[in-house]
Amino acid sequence: MIFAVEFDFANKVERRFELADDEKLEPVLESVRAGKFCWVDFDAEHVEQSLPFLERLGLDPLILADIKQDRPVPYFVDIEDALFFTLLDGEWNDGSLRHRPVAVFFATTFLVTVHREGSSVIASMKRSYSRNFRRIALSPGFLLFELADHLCEEYTEIVCQIAEDTEEIEDSLFNQADETKFARVSDLIRGIVEFYKVVVFAREVIHDLANARSPYIPETTQPFLEKKATLLDRLSADITAEREVLSEAVNLYLGIVTHGTNRFLARLTALGTLFLPLSFLAGVYGMNFDYLPELKWKYGYPTFWAVVLTFTISVLTLMKKKGWM
């Protein structure tokens, strides 16, 4: 069912429309043409019905074609009869970001939201708009604030989820790391970078709304929108910090592994240094020559081992004293 509601800001009265198809959108059009402000939301099942409705509101068909393109990034444009912008409704799931574009048309007498998939931001707006309309709303701009507010709440929750995933990966890296952990780190960094772009684009859209010289946005609403743009700016900084923390954790882990490898190689080098002279001695006395005076010594064999043991003990003592082993 298409969601539609009419607002009377002077008397604090709202009226819901029960709409099931395009033919029943006529009451909304009549209300808009009469100067009443209406919010209409077209969800996944009714996206195609939004196009003729918006055309009947007098919007440029070229702009409406952007709905069919389903733009992957937010943007803002001030057209002749309304403001048109898109935002990305995000969902964080196991280190990856799934975003859903929400197209928004805002004018003096209407707010139209269009999304091809379910939107948690729009769903939150539907739950809270009525209470805030009665308590604080002075103009249609409160719906823009509601949209920005719920978008910031969703992004803040995603940042918290990213922080939890980062902490979990840090623990797993230092407890027991394997190749799957590095694959997950790669996926998480990719998701963080993608989410950072989403937040930055949304910040620019909200900032444009807060500073636009447009007859459609009440001046009393713009300072509150600017606060949300500032919050998005802080969130983008938090996202950057989480990415840096994750990168530093990986670098620290690799540094620890490299240090352990270097110590192991140092011990192998020390052992090679120890056995190299011994191998030389064994090679000399293993040669098959008739004239080797030491072969005729009565105590030649014990003497050889005495030399070998003395040398080995001396070298081992020196290596331990130097900290090479």
Question: What is the gist of this entry?
Answer:
This protein has 325 residues and is α+β, with helices and mostly antiparallel strands. The chain has helices spanning 26-33, 47-56, 61-69, 120-135, 141-175, 179-211, 222-284, 300-322; strands at residues 2-8, 13-19, 37-42, 75-78, 83-93, 96-106, 110-114. The chain has a seven-stranded mixed sheet with strand order 2-1-3-7-6-5-4, sandwiched between helices.
What does this structure look like?
The chain is α+β, with helices and mostly antiparallel strands and 325 residues long. It has two domains: 255 residues, Beta Polymerase, domain 2 (2-Layer Sandwich), CATH 3.30.460.20; 61 residues, Magnesium transport protein CorA, transmembrane region (Methane Monooxygenase Hydroxylase, Chain G, domain 1, Up-down Bundle). Helix content is 61%, strand content 16%. It is built from eight helices and seven strands; from the N terminus they run ββαβααββββααααα. It has a seven-stranded mixed beta sheet, sandwiched between helices. β6 and β7 form a beta hairpin. α4 packs across α5 and α6 runs antiparallel to α7. The longest helix is centred in the C-terminal third of the chain and has 63 residues. It starts with a strand and ends with a helix.
Proportion of residues in extended strands: 15-25%
Rg, Cα atoms, Å: 36 Å
CATH superfamily of the largest domain: CorA soluble domain-like
Shape: rod-shaped
Class inferred from helices and paired strands: alpha+beta
Strand order of the largest sheet: 2-1-3-7-6-5-4
How would you sum up the major sheet? 7 strands, mixed
Count of alpha and pi helical runs: 8
How many individual domains?
A: 2
Helix content: 55-70%
In total, the number of strands is: 7
Mean pLDDT: 82
What is the CATH fold-level name of the largest domain?
Answer: Beta Polymerase, domain 2
> CATH class of the largest domain, anyone?
Alpha Beta
Q: What string, H for helix and E for strand, traces the elements in order?
A: EEHEHHEEEEHHHHH
Task: Give the CA-CA distance, first to last residue.
Answer: 76 Å
Q: Low-confidence parts, pLDDT < 50 over ≥5 residues?
A: none
Just name the CATH architecture of the largest domain: 2-Layer Sandwich
